[in-house]
Amino acid sequence: MRNDLLLRLLDAFVVVAVAVAGLWAWRRWHYRSFWLVAGYPLMAVSVRTTWRKVALGCGLTKKRHRWWFTLVPNAVASTGMVKVRRRFQRIAVDTKPWMWLPRPTRYGWRVTVHLLEGQIPDDYAQAAEQLAHSWRVHAVRVSSPRPGRVVLAATMRDPLVRVDEIPPSSELLKVTVGRLETGKPWEIDFRTVPHWLNAGATQSGKSNLANALIVGLAPQPVALVGFDLKGGVEFTPYAPRLSALATSRAESVGLLDDLVALMADRMGLCRQASARNIWQLPPALRPVPVVVLVDELAELYLMADKSEKDEIAKTSTALLRVAQLGRAFGIYLFCCGQRIGSDLGPGVTALRAQCSGRICHRVNDPETATMTLGDLDPAALVSARAIPAETPGVAIVAGQDGQWYRARSFYVSEHAAEHAARMYADLTPSWEEITSGTQGSEITEADLTELIDA
Ligand SMILES: Nc1ncnc2c1ncn2[C@@H]1O[C@H](COP(=O)(O)OP(=O)(O)OP(=O)(O)O)[C@@H](O)[C@H]1O
User: Fold this and answer.
1) 226 is known to lie in a ligand binding site
2) What is the pLDDT of residue 237?
3) How many Å lie between the centroid of ligand 1 and the Cα of residue 208?
4) N or C: which end of the chain has fewer CB within 10 A?
5) ipTM score here?
6) Which CATH class is domain 42-155?
7) What CATH number should be reported for the domain whose range is 174-453?
8) The model scores a pTM over 0.90
């Protein structure tokens, strides 16, 4: 009899142990299906049932008057706040915002909440950290798809700890460089956002992102131009795919002059063809788009002594002109730097205003984060300053939809970028070809009419 009981207990123990091990293995090897089948339903029930307490704790409830009926007056603390003295009376109750059923997402869940009177989405954004701790999730992001509604998106664990391989780019001037924390691809599309600032402290992943761009753009019919103010150590290995490379400020002045002249040339061409930008030109006439990669932007602005003042002023003006007018004429900027502070001069501030694409990796000084992301949500700044050193490549990105996201670039080694540069070297147009003026001045009115008709 006792042996029987012992055997049964042993059996039950083995069954439980196998079940636990099975669940562990399922979660470990196929987290997505585990999450959808086992994790999500439990979580949805728990979020709905605890919403009142959580909303109250995070200060998201409002007092409303309700009729209250009780059989035992005085004995019931009906709302936790008010004692009911009569059987039937009107009392103030903490009302929670209406919450829909949470829906599963790739890395967690999202739920729509109806705002209570007087609430704005920012109230929820401010409570995001409290909500994340209350729900024991990695992070809660708040967005407002329409007035009166907020969507709370919770991620169970940081999806950026590991990101997978880089897929090949399919569209001209568009490169998938990494993944957003929402699980969507992180795309840099120069035709939508023409100029980008890429800031970050040393070893934060700026060059890795530039490598991802080189790998993505190398097979495309575009010209790549490099300004490598680290004396050429970063971009020289990619020279086979670069149409021009400047490695010092003196060389940069010359190359920027060429770019401004190229822009004027393209302006003339567009004017002749009554086009507003190169994309309105017929394909046979359309000049090749130029992507300008600048590494160590601050070096263009740093002044050791007064003799450099004129050179800096020239560089700064030329770069600003490229940023102001380049978009229409197919010249795009991607500027990387450790520090992009206003102390570098008004040129940097003006350039920043022209760069609507913002990427802020881990930074050392708050000013660079403010300069890079300043006009976004202040929560983006907090998030940028919280990027840990252990996750290089993680950045705060101002997306094409006007929102900000945490994102991580795919790991692209220098070796992979060098390999891509060599492999597609034959697609590199020479700088002489690009700047020779064949794209404007030498085309006659008759040629132009013929080409446009064709
Ligand atoms: N997305 C990523 N995933 C994994 N490792 C990364 C990623 N991005 C960068 N790294 C690693 O982090 C290190 C620093 O990256 P990177 O050279 O791009 O930084 P950086 O900001 O350009 O630094 P510096 O300014 O000193 O040149 C490298 O060893 C790189 O391999």
Assistant:
1) no
2) 95
3) 5
4) N
5) 0.96
6) alpha beta
7) 3.40.50.300
8) no
